[in-house]
Amino acid sequence: MGRNIHVLRGLNPPATEQEIFAAAQEYVRTIGGVSGLTTNTKAAVDKAVAVIAAATTELLAELPQRGLPAPPEPPERRGIREVPDAS
User: Where is this region: Disordered (predicted)?
Assistant: First the structure.
């Protein structure tokens, strides 16, 4: 699927508004076949992203805690891990 669509349930710390918005945006662009916004597509895409982001926020708030271990960090959260100094 898209690069910003990842399991957001059970993240620690919880998914941010930006992560939810990015996932909603990627979803809309993928299923809508929209690679770039134009004056003809912007309003519809923006409306759909807002609706999906709101629904996702509500879904995550209403789901019970995961019984499984937390999913791996989304790539956006993975930073370059500092390597301990070998000296």
Answer: 63-87
Is-contact 8 23, C-beta < 8 A?
A: yes
Amino acid making up residue 84: P
* CA-CA-CA-CA dihedral for 38, 39, 43, 45, to nearest 10: -10
Alpha-carbon gap, residue 64 to 22, rounded angstroms: 23
The confidence score (pLDDT) of residue 5 equals: 79
The single-letter code of the amino acid at 69 is P
Q: Which two tokens stand for residue 79?
A: 């930073």
Contacts of 1 (CB under 8 A, 6+ apart): 26, 30
* pLDDT tier for residue 44 given thresholds of 50, 70 and 90: very high
What is the pLDDT at residue 80?
A: 44
Nearest to 70 by CA among 13, 19, 31: 13
DSSP E strands, the chain: none
